[in-house]
Amino acid sequence: MNATNCPYGEIPRYGCRRTPTAAGLDGDLEKPFWRGAEKTSVFAELNTGARAHLDTQAALQWDDENLYIGFWVSDPDVRTIDTARSTMNWPENAVIVCLAFPGAIYELGVSPSGKTEPLALIWKDAYARGGHYDVPEFNLARLQPFVIGEDHKTEHARGVRWGFEAWELPGMRTSVHVDGALNDRHVVDRGWTAEIALPWSGMKLLDDKEILPPRSGTELRIELGRTEVAEGPGRSATALWTWARHGSDDLHIPECYPVVTLEGK
């Protein structure tokens, strides 16, 4: 399969329930806010769908202000690698959110220490002079984004995208909780959890087709994932496990992302 030929019949569909109360983010997913929220399937290997050796699941909810995402991450050795993003890569133990709009993708990674790494990808064909993305936050001359399709290869038929590193979605909040001892390899941990709140108001900069404001029946394309670094003598490798199988090693293919439908009045 090439990058745009994902297994469409396998794309997950998820009913995202509306919550009557806002979440107080503290990383604790045992609180009443998350009780009854439907979990995703267990994440699997991005390309083949082979089950990962450590379990990861997530759940989503929404209200008028935010989209909420919670992650349950099983890990007997919760640790951080303390690396920085290098263009498309972040070799770190982390959970990942990819939120797709017609003209852009927003990616956010969160590590068990609470460190975040954001990225905005904007399709060249959606970037027009005087258009939605022709704003100071995405100024090409000043920010000099990297280019997927020129600097970095892509098999996607749509072609070139600009990558804006460290672009912060306005109002985004995260919190994590470690069930064990972070970065202590003498302790056997149970894992860690993460809570993320993405405000709809902050997504306006990415929403070039007026999908927002949110309402019951709105469909979003969202991929959720986890990276796990395995270290060996003189080298390391990073595994990527996701909610949906892409049939390729490319995470940034929105056609493969699960369909999340907002439910409730």
Gist of the model:
By secondary structure, this protein is mainly β. The protein has helices at 140-143, 200-203; strands spanning 13-18, 44-45, 56-62, 66-74, 94-101, 104-110, 116-123, 146-148, 161-165, 173-179, 191-199, 219-232, 235-242, 259-262.
Descriptive labels:
single chain; mainly beta; Immunoglobulin-like; 2 helices; 37% strand
Explained architecture:
- By secondary structure, the chain is mainly beta.
- It has a single domain (8-83, 92-121, 165-262), classed as Sandwich (Immunoglobulin-like).
- It has helices at 140-143, 200-203, and strands at residues 13-18, 44-45, 56-62, 66-74, 94-101, 104-110, 116-123, 146-148, 161-165, 173-179, 191-199, 219-232, 235-242, 259-262.
- The longest helix has 4 residues, at 140-143.
Number of strands: 14
Elements, N to C (H/E)? EEEEEEEHEEEEHEEE
Number of helices: 2
* Gap from first CA to last CA: 40 Å
For the largest beta-sheet, the strand count, sense and barrel status come to:
14 strands, mixed
Question: Which residues sit in consecutive blocks of at least 5 with pLDDT less than 50?
Answer: none
Mean pLDDT: 92
* The CATH topology: Immunoglobulin-like
- Count the domains: 1
Helix percentage range: under 10%
Radius of gyration: 18 Å
In terms of DSSP E residues, the strand content is: 35-45%
